[in-house]
Amino acid sequence: MTLQSILDEIRKRPGTGEVIPVIDPVTEDQITEFTDCGEEAVNEAVARARAAFESGVWHGLPGRERAKIMWRIADLMDQYADDLAELDSLNTGMPLAQAKMIVPTCAEFFRYYAGWCTKINGTAHEVQMTGGISGAYADMHAYTLKEPYGVVGLIFPWNGPVFNACAKLAPALAAGCSTVVKPAEETPLSALLLDRIITEAGVPDGVVNLLTGYGHTAGAALTAHPDVDKIAFTGSTEVGKQIVQASAGNLKKVMLELGGKSPVLIYDDADLNMAILMASMGIFVHSGQGCVCGSRIFVQRGVYDQVTEGIATVANSLKLGGPKEEGSNIGPLISHKQLTRVMGFIDEGKQDGVEVVTGGHRLDRRGYFIHPTVLTNVDPGMRLYQQEIFGPVVTITPFDDDDEAVAMANDTTYGLAATAWTNNLSRAHRIAKRLQAGTVTLNCQLVFDHSVPFGGYKQSGWGHEFGREGIEAYMQTKSVWAQL
Ligand code: NAD
Questions:
Q1: Are 32 and 7 in contact (CB under 8 A)?
Q2: What atom of ligand 1 comes closest to residue 160's alpha carbon?
Q3: d(Cα 210, Cα 212) in Å, to the nearest integer?
Q4: How many CA atoms lie within 13 A of 372 on its CB side?
Q5: pTM metric for this prediction
Q6: For 1-15, 175-189, 397-411, which range has the lowest pLDDT when averaged over its residues?
Q7: CB-based contact 279:294 (threshold 8 Å)
Q8: Which residue numbers delimit the Aldehyde dehydrogenase domain (predicted)?
Q9: Pairing mode, strands 414-415 and 475-483
């Protein structure tokens, strides 16, 4: 019922651009279609967001009132959890059980950040300057105010549609910002239901404005818009760089959560069964379409053959299929474009002499499925070793000691995540310090909590999401001085 009404609603959304098909990546059939909203819709959405912000209808509410509405969003998300999961599963092809596991976590973003609404405060400062210019005044104090940026554009990718939307919306709303939301053109469906939920929960008109359109049209217009104060973007490093350039017109602030090429180090003293299983899932889950997926595995030489064989065995045991196919635990890639891109990396690697331990081919069936792929004998200069593939493809390389492992792990322009598997406690923490990544996981992978900051080093991003840093990203600091 909800599903069909969303498929109908998106068809009817006004637009002026191209008609964009929404494709089921499992069957390659069209699910529905919509019209690119066009630049005029972007201007209108920004104007609505600006009017709502200037009226104070949202940020002017006491924090406890914003918090109550955010709790209602979370409660409604729980109520519609099956529908949200079904929409994401249909749209991305991820197993329904996986989508059902993720949605409650997304609702929790609103509860977590609802708690912050009543804890936004600045700091008071005793002014110590007795000489110089300030010294002209006998008695002074200063304090800071934390204020919402204003109108923020939220742009995110297709790999976790509800998750990506909530990770940005919850802190932005808690901070008091007005928002213009642009989901990926491949996966706009769950954002429509989320939009309905937000309205039903009582978020005032104009505070959340949804755009449905392409990145190069709607996204680009939003990013360049002179009346947008900040862009919070999750997506590829390539588009992140375009966003920085497009934002220069009004020097809008930019937060970027970008790509990764995350290393996983497995030492001979690790719990190898656990390391093999988790390192395998750490790349093959969601067909490798996760920003923190560990796509470069480094194994201490003595256990290299054992670990490589173990990971290949796990890869071969995974059952690829659609959400409705019994027993399937891994879905397809999102699109034909992505399938072609990933196969391009694999084919180039084969030509350049990499060894395909397992996989390396598309499944002989409908849908954008690639067999989980393990590659060895990879040269560090190869494109597939350096660039983010965002597919179920992992390279495995041996190392002899800490220095070599760290040097290889850090030999990348990315710095999103890194992992070490070792039972040597001192080594684990020494290595954590040396790895150039915004998140380091020790003897675990794919971990997440709303309270733990997440952000990229190097070309994996600017700024942080989650935790205190997550709400501060949507606030600016004003210093107020007073002569007493
Ligand atoms: P993408 O960069 O192509 O697109 C992301 C979003 O940006 C989409 O909504 C798209 O429509 C929009 N967009 C595209 N061109 C634009 C432009 N010129 N101006 C404004 N917006 C534009 O990324 P993708 O292929 O959809 O997603 C995969 C990428 O996302 C991977 O690189 C992955 O690592 C990254 N990602 C990062 C994180 C993180 O937290 N660091 C999380 C998930 C995904």
A1: yes
A2: 43
A3: 7
A4: 25
A5: 0.97
A6: 1-15
A7: yes
A8: 17-480
A9: unpaired
| CA-nearest residue, atom 22 of ligand 1 | 215
Distance 319 CA to ligand 1 centre (A): 28
Q: Is the dihedral of CA 213, 216, 217, 221 positive or negative?
A: positive
Alpha carbon distance 483, 136 (integer Å): 10
Distance between CA atoms of 241 and 234, rounded to whole angstroms?
Answer: 12
CA distance 421 to 379: 23
Closest CA to 328 of 50, 115, 97, 144: 97
- Smallest Cα–Cα separation from 405: which of 291, 278, 304? 304
Q: Are 311 and 374 within 8 A, CB to CB? A: yes
Quote the ligand 1 centre to 313 CA distance (angstroms).
Answer: 32
Distance 46 CA to ligand 1 centre (A): 21
Side chain identity at residue 30, one-letter code: Q
Atom 38, ligand 1: residue with shortest CA distance? 291
Q: Is the pLDDT of residue 270 over 70?
A: yes
Q: C-alpha angle 475/461/287, rounded to 5°?
A: 120
> Positive or negative, the Cα torsion across 282, 287, 288, 289?
negative
Could you tell me whether strands 373-376 and 439-442 are parallel, antiparallel, or unpaired per DSSP bridges? unpaired
- Asked whether the beta carbons of 290 and 392 are under 8 A apart, the reply is no
C-alpha pair distances (Å), 277 with each of 356, 368, 385: 19, 24, 22
Ligand 1 neighbours, Cβ below 6 Å, are 155-159, 182, 184-185, 214-216, 219-220, 223, 234-236, 239, 242-243, 257-260, 291, 388, 390, 416, 456, 461
Atom of ligand 1 nearest to the CA of 213: 11
Q: Alpha-carbon distance 245 to 254, whole Å?
A: 10
Residue of 257, 388, 465, 472 marked active site: 257
- Give the residue-averaged pLDDT of 246-274: 98
Non-local CB neighbours of 171 within 8 Å, separated by 6+ positions = 109, 113, 116, 465, 470, 471, 473, 474
Residue 480 pairs with which residues in a beta bridge?
143
142 CA to centre of ligand 1 in angstroms? 41
- Which strand ranges, in their side-by-side order, compose the sheet holding 253-257? 208-210, 178-182, 151-155, 230-234, 253-257, 461-462
Q: Which residue has the tokens 């929960």?
A: 201
257 flagged as catalytic: yes
With tokens 């495995």, the residue in question is 396
Place of tokens 């554009």: 153
Structure tokens at 13: 């959304």
Packing angle, helices 81-92 and 161-175, rounded to 10: 130
In this predicted model, what pLDDT tens digit does every residue of 173-214 receive, in sequence order?
Answer: 999 999 999 999 999 999 999 999 999 999 999 999 999 999
In ligand 1, which atom is closest to the CA atom of 416?
Answer: 41
Look at ligand 1, atom 16, and give the residue with the nearest C-alpha: 215
pLDDT at 236 over 70: yes
